[in-house]
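Suppose you are handed a protein chain with no further information: no name, no annotation, nothing but its sequence. What can you learn? This example shows the usual starting point.
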Amino acid sequence: MRHSPFFEGVTQSDMTVAGQPAKVPIFYYDGTATQAVFAARLGALRRLMPDPRFSPARLAPGLGALAITCFEYRDTDLGPYNELAISVVLNEPWFLANLPGRALVSSLRRRQLHAWVQHLPVTTEIARAGGVDFYNYPKFIAGIDFEETASRRVCRLSEGEEHILTLSGERISTPRSQELQLFSHLWMDRQPQGSEFKINALEMGVSLSPRAATLQLGERHPIARELAGLIAWHRPLQYQYMARFEGILYGPEHLSPALLARTAAAGIDAAAQPA
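A reasonable first move is to predict its three-dimensional structure. Written in structure tokens, the prediction is:
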């Protein structure tokens, strides 16, 4: 899908990441993703936030929403790699009335999800370095393995010998084709940072069945223990399966002087990046 019209009109700049040539915005030409959204303890989610401008969306009294998204990128400007996002759905903008369900319903209607990214393991060094250096994504190298059967798609996350989580989802029908926007909210140089990942879902399905996905957590890894304290129950509120998608990850939203110096060292034309 390298010649897809989805990428037309978007100018890329050359850059160097981990000693390797890359581009920004980064084009994702072919991928598959599964996502499950779980009810989580609102007070515990709030304690994760570094600043009051990050406000976890209220799902119900005492409950917020946490998303686990598994990406298999088969063809990108950074080469193939896998990624797993653990994110907290946000009430955005933070000063709006945080009424139960408002933010989640609004995100579904607008096809825009705003989320605080708590963990973002990846499988290659170029993906890790680019995400950390230019966005301060909480990335680290991990094992992210996929397995498919006739009816299910399974994603297993591990670090070394330690199992972190396994998300198993149904291969539901994918009749939809639509564009989505994922807005990542981050913390860089003690101020808010952000990025937009625009997705063209070519084959997508959504299920509200709690049986559509199951989550199994490891016993000893710190992230597994953290999730055990956050998630209220391990059946999803919503499950999404994108059998095929393409995407564009735009540059960081805020270009501080330190980040401008970093981009100059990487050979990026900062004037071509979003302000």
